[in-house]
Amino acid sequence: MTSAGMNIKVDPTEFAGKRVVVSGGTKGAGRATVDRFLAGGARVVTAAREVPAPIDGVEFVKADLTTAEGGEVLAQAALDRMGGVDILAHVLGGSSSPGGGFVALTDAHWTAELSLNLLAAVRLDRLLVPQMIEKGAGAVVHVTSIQSVLPLPESTTAYAAAKAALKTYSKSLSKEVGPKGVRVNVVSPGWIMTESSVELLKRLQAANGGTIEEARQVILDGLGGIPIGRPAEPHEVADLIAYLASDRAAAIHGAEFVIDGGTVSTDLRARLTVSRDAERRCRSNREWRRALARTCCRGCR
């Protein structure tokens, strides 16, 4: 069987009997992750602020995961409906903060970024990982971002800081729960061609004229280039998440896997220099701030 958007064959029994919770599972990489686990035979629960059109095999819970109450609603629903959780994939993330650098970020902006990109995962872990520990088995995958090491100070400081905190938290969690049978790993995407990214390209084209390809190049330049010449596809990120949650990765724990097409080079200093040069070239673009924020934050989800 193949899952949506994938050209590789998926074993329909790979996750048979597994109970999976995916945060942010209604669009972008989150929806692709839901589809990937379904293709492998898992039972999946996810949440959304508004319940979308039904998807066969998926159980939706109406909950706002940026709140403590929302996390409790999703966790309790997963436990009640499935009797437990074997795999927890935190894909939820994004940014709504304005451009303008650090001085433009109010306490409210910081609180919103931390609630969405850090605390939502922390709360669900606190609610669901203990039952994994109790049975001595489980897998947790946190989706962070390459912005944890390659932030865009003009527009994504709070988002990048929250994702960096999530990565550090994940490492600490892995040290604590690994000896108790629960594996924890991190996936750090770069630009992903989600629905949000497609809409962004259209907005850039409308604002500046030219073609979609020229709009795409603006973003590539802003990121300092992507060596493979394209963003990742949602299903590619989802397949990495599924691999880390599977028995095939039974010996992988406390690790970070970057999926960015080479955006963050081994020589990070050189990459940062390229990015600053690209930013200077693009500053005349009136969509610059919002473009990069949406591409590298919401576009990753």
Helix share bin: 40-55%
The total count of helices amounts to: 9
**Widest β-sheet, arrangement of strands:** 3-2-1-4-5-6-7
CATH topology assignment of the domain at 19-192 and 230-264: Rossmann fold
* Beta content: 5-15%
- Secondary structure tally: strands: 7
Average pLDDT, to the nearest integer?
Answer: 88
Reported for the largest beta sheet, the result is:
7 strands, parallel
Which regions are unreliable across 5 or more consecutive residues at pLDDT < 50? none
Structural class: alpha/beta
Secondary-structure element order, as H and E? EHEEHEHEHEHHHEHH
Global geometry: globular
Q: End-to-end span in angstroms? A: 25 Å
**Estimated radius of gyration:** 19 Å
CATH architecture of the domain at 19-192 and 230-264: 3-Layer(aba) Sandwich
CATH class descriptor name of the domain at 19-192 and 230-264: Alpha Beta
Name of the CATH homologous superfamily of the domain at 19-192 and 230-264: NAD(P)-binding Rossmann-like Domain
